[in-house]
Amino acid sequence: MDQIPIFTLGEVLLVSIQVDLEDQLAMRLQEDLSERIVATGARAVIIDISALDIVDSFIGRMLSTIASISRVLDAETVVVGMRPAVAITLVELGLSLKGVRTALTVEHGLRMLNGTPSLALGGPREAGYGDGDGYGDADSTGDSPAPDAGSRAALPRPVSD
Amino acid sequence: MALADSGGDVEALPITADEDVVRVRQLVRSRAVAAKLSLIDQTKLVTAASELARNTLVHGGGGRAEVSTVTNGRRNGIRVHFADDGPGIADLDLAMTDGYTSGTGMGLGLSGARRLVDEFDIDTGPGAGTRVTVTKWSR
Ligand SMILES: Nc1ncnc2c1ncn2[C@@H]1O[C@H](COP(=O)(O)OP(=O)(O)OP(=O)(O)O)[C@@H](O)[C@H]1O
Ligand SMILES: [Mg+2]
C-alpha cells in the first residue's frame, strides 16, 4: 500500500491507519490530507490509530503537524483509538502530542466535534446530541459510505496483560 | 550485564531505507512476544527500537540491527544492538538531552529510548560511528 485512504463523512474527513506506517507514507498522508481539507471544505479530521501498535516520535510529530495544518485551514483534528500501551509508552518517551485533541473512539470523536460551538456537523445540532449512542449522527449527513473503522475503534483493552 | 548470555539466536537486519525501520520493529515485536514480555514492555521496546533504527538510518547514514534473546538464568530478555559507521556523536551528553536535535526532529529519540528500556549502552565518538545496545527483561 502506498497511500492511506481518506473517507468523507459529511464535513468530516476520516482516516483509519491500518498499516505499520513507513516514514514516507506518513509524510504523504500529511500532504494528501491538507489537499483534501481544502478541496472538500471539511471542518474536521478524525484520525483513527486503533490499529497502530506503536507511536514513536516520528508518527507523533506527524499527528501534531496534521493538527497544526488543519487548524490553519480551519478544521479541527481529533486523534481517536489510541491503545493504552501506546499511551503509556508515549508519555514515557516524552511526547506530548501538543495541540492534538484525542478521543477514545470515532463515535466519541464525532460527539466531541458536535459539541464544538463553531462546528455544526451532521446537520441539525440535535442530531449530534441527545441520543447518546454516537451512531446515526454521521449517517444522517450521509452520502458517502462510512467505513467500518468505527467498530474497530472499540474501547481499549485494559492495560494489564 | 556480565551474567547475561546470548542464546545464539541472533537475527540481523540491514538498515538502509525507510522500510527497514518497519522491519526492525516487526522483528523486535515477534521476538518480544516469544520471550513473553508483557504487552506494555513489548510496546516500550519496539518504540525504543524504532527510534534507534531511525537514528541509525538518518544520522548514521545506515547500518544494521541485531536482535537476540538473552537470559540471566532467571529471566528472559530481548537485546537489540544497532551499529553504524556514520559520523558518530561528538557531544554525547548534549545528544542525550531531551529536546536536543541537530536536525529537524524533536530530540526525543535517544533520551526517550533510554527511559523505555532496562539497559542502555552507547559507544560513539567523532568519526567512530555509533553502537547502541538496549535490553528489556521480562518481569
Ligand atoms: N546513530 C547516530 N549517528 C550520529 N549522530 C546521532 C546518531 N543518533 C543520534 N545522533 C545525534 O543525536 C541527536 C539526538 O538524537 P535524537 O534521536 O534524540 O533526536 P533526533 O533524531 O534529532 O530527533 P527525533 O528522534 O526526536 O526525531 C541527533 O540530532 C543527532 O545529532
Ligand atoms: Mg532520533
TrEMBL record, chain A:
Residues 2-113 form the STAS domain. Residues 122-161 are annotated as: Disordered. InterPro entries: Bact_StressResp_Reg, STAS_dom, STAS_dom_sf. CDD domains: STAS_RsbR_RsbS_like. Transmembrane segments: none annotated. It holds the Pfam family STAS. PROSITE patterns: STAS (PS50801). It comes from the Bacteria. This is STAS domain-containing protein. It comes from Rugosimonospora africana.
UniProtKB/TrEMBL annotation, chain B:
SMART domains: HATPase_c (SM00387). Coiled coil: none annotated. Pfam families: HATPase_c (PF02518). Gene3D superfamilies: Histidine kinase-like ATPase, C-terminal domain (3.30.565.10). Residues 40-139 form the Histidine kinase/HSP90-like ATPase domain. SUPFAM superfamilies: ATPase domain of HSP90 chaperone/DNA topoisomerase II/histidine kinase (SSF55874). This is Anti-sigma regulatory factor. It comes from Rugosimonospora africana. The lineage of its organism: Bacteria, Bacillati, Actinomycetota, Actinomycetes, Micromonosporales. The gene is rsbT.
